[in-house]
Amino acid sequence: MPHLPENTRSVYSLPKIEINQAVIGSCTNGRIEDLRQAASVLKNRKVYPGVRLYVLPGTPSILLQAEKEGLVQIFLECGAVLCPASCGPCLGGHLGVLAEGERCISTTNRNFVGRMGHPKSEVYLANPYIAASSALAGYITTPNRL
Predict the structure, then answer these.
(1) Domain total for the chain?
(2) Dihedral of CA 95/26/19/132: which sign?
(3) pLDDT of residue 6
(4) Is 91 helix (H, G, I), strand (E, B) or coil?
């Protein structure tokens, strides 16, 4: 929950929290295992209209492995934007910078005020299964609730 990583709750205890964006990966939590988990949820599905999904492999070698395994195709076919291996939106540097009032679910490691953009945006931290499911539903949810 915003605005500290230790502000945690069970996803099952949350009200319906609509999102504008989902981020999977970055220099932290962009492992091949993370991408595999996300792809298992996203395969043969489409990102919810109006939700932006960014996928950032942690390194170029992870990107190459994801390509070999067919994960890149899954991401592109579901409507995700495949980004270069980098910190990306986690630091509010490029791609995915949040506007005022926007909400993001992210597998990155920080969600401080203004971390991904506007100080009045919100970042919710989650694992790849939850982030991918939420990108499909348009609100924070789990694979078993899709």
Answers:
(1) 1
(2) positive
(3) 83
(4) helix
Pick the closest to residue 52 from 82, 17, 91 (CA basis). Answer: 82
Report the predicted TM-score, pTM, of the whole model to 2 decimal places. Answer: 0.93
Query: Which domain covers residue 79, as residue numbers?
Result: 11-145
Report pLDDT for 98.
87
Q: How far apart are CA 117 and CA 110, in angstroms?
A: 12
CATH number at residue 114: 3.30.499.10
* pLDDT average per 10 residues of sequence, the chain (146 residues): 84 96 89 97 98 96 97 98 78 76 91 78 95 98 96
| Sign of CA pseudo-dihedral 17, 18, 21, 22 | positive
What distances in angstroms separate CA 37 from CA 12, 60, 71, 127, one per listed residue? 19, 19, 10, 9
User: Which phi and psi angles does 90 have, rounded to 5°?
Assistant: -55, -35
